[in-house]
Amino acid sequence: MTRSYPGSTPPTGARSGCATEVARCGVPAPEAWDGQQRYRAQIAPVPSGIDRPFWSVMIPTYNCARYLRETLASVLAQDPGREVMQVEVIDDCSNQDDPEAVVAELGGGRVGFFRQPTNVGHVRNFNTCLQRSRGRLIHILHGDDCVRPGFYHAMQRVFDEHPEIGNAFCRQVIIDEAGRWRNISGLLQPESGLAENWLERIAIGQRLQTPAMVVRREVYEHLGGFDRRIHYYGEDWEMWVRIAAHYPVWHEIEPLALYRIHQSSLSGRTFRTGENIRDLRRAVRINRASLPDKDASRISRLALEACALGAIRRARRALARGETVGVAPQILEAFKSSRTPNVLARIAFILLYWAWRALRPPRAEQ
After folding, report:
1. Which pLDDT tens digit goes with each residue over 315-332?
2. Residues 172 and 45 both lie in one domain
3. Same domain, yes or no, for 241 and 281?
4. Whole-prediction pTM value?
5. Same structural domain for residues 172 and 238?
6. Which of 214, 236, 260 is where one domain is finished?
7. Which stretches within 61-212 are classed as H helix?
8. What DSSP assignment string belongs to 5-50?
9. 9-18, 32-41, 105-114: which has the highest mean pLDDT?
10. What is the pLDDT of residues 21-56, one digit of tens each?
11. Contact indicator for 221, 41 with CB cutoff of 8 Å
12. CA pair distance 145, 173, nearest whole angstrom
């Protein structure tokens, strides 16, 4: 049965040129994605007569209340008022802490709270964030991530000045459990502006984290929510590829988002099982529907190689820290993803490195 989605025809006005370019490149329109769309939540337009703020800052949580104070504080420090910004925490039925108490303590009635009656998984919880949003721009901010001062002002200015874009993202700072800076994502281009050759670049590999991205709500209404075939890791990547196939994308080169990595995070758990790479392979298969026919096979091969190389890098970093849990699953999933000479050589190297670390004599104590 064919399902209809709000806004499924190409947008008019500022976005008509983008729709024309998409058709010229041979990218499938959403109307041709019926088999794909059944895996994506419908995001209905906000009913008429409801007050709409400019922003919806939607904060999904699950057992991360110890970080939520920092997350909320970073948002509320930039709060322009409830008429301009909706702030709401969407909890996936946490069973180890009480995010509602944190919201009541820090939000002071300013922050909304919704709790799933049962644990639905983070992809469905993300879609609940989209469905409950009322703003014209949506920022999904994980309950353990933060924004730096100036994030909302800078991003709002971009959307005001460039009505043709569907989404915009900034660089991100990687932080650890204690909030210490560990890395800053690299420059993708020398100046802020429309992301160059963005569909191919993002389809080859994930280049940003969710807290760095802001999306017009009408884009989600047009293309649907996050794809539930991706279980734990990479659902955001698939979404950014899907949007890039239909809308211009803006890149803000300032690092204004903070992305936290810790052992209890979903990223840490999926590393230990290899599910992160299995999910990325699923995303590569799904992403083919967003790519021009003439380029789909080439880009997909490059994406699988990038998945493999990413798994090897993660395994090497773990070994360098003296950790072995998760190393074997990462190497195995790298081998399953791609067997280019580059990948095979790196697998051989890391296996030798692992053996050397295991067999070397322990250092004598001083």
Report:
1. 999 999 888 989 999 999
2. yes
3. no
4. 0.87
5. yes
6. 260
7. 65-76, 99-102, 122-132, 151-161, 198-204
8. -TT-SPP-GGGHHHHHHHHHHTPPPGGG-HHHHTTB---PPPPTTS
9. 105-114
10. 334 334 444 444 557 888 999 999 999 999 999 999
11. no
12. 10
Is 130 within a domain? yes
Domain at 28, CATH number: 3.90.550.10
Q: Do 248 and 276 have their domain in common?
A: no
Give the chain's domain count: 2
> 216 and 245: one domain?
yes
By residue range, what is the domain housing residue 136? 14-260
Query: How far is residue 175's CA from residue 173's CA, in Å, rounded to a whole number?
Result: 6
Alpha helices, DSSP H, located in 77-138: 99-102, 122-132
pLDDT exceeding 90 applies to what percent of the chain?
Answer: 81
Token match 């959307």: residue? 159
Q: Residue 227 gets which letter from DSSP?
A: B
158-162, 216-220, 271-275: which has the minimum mean pLDDT?
Answer: 271-275
Q: Are 112 and 88 in contact (CB under 8 A)?
A: yes
Number of residues in the chain: 366
Q: How far apart are CA 335 and CA 22, in angstroms?
A: 34
The least confident of 125-129, 136-140, 321-325 is 321-325
Residues 47 and 155 reside in one and the same domain? yes
> In terms of domains, do 193 and 281 share one?
no
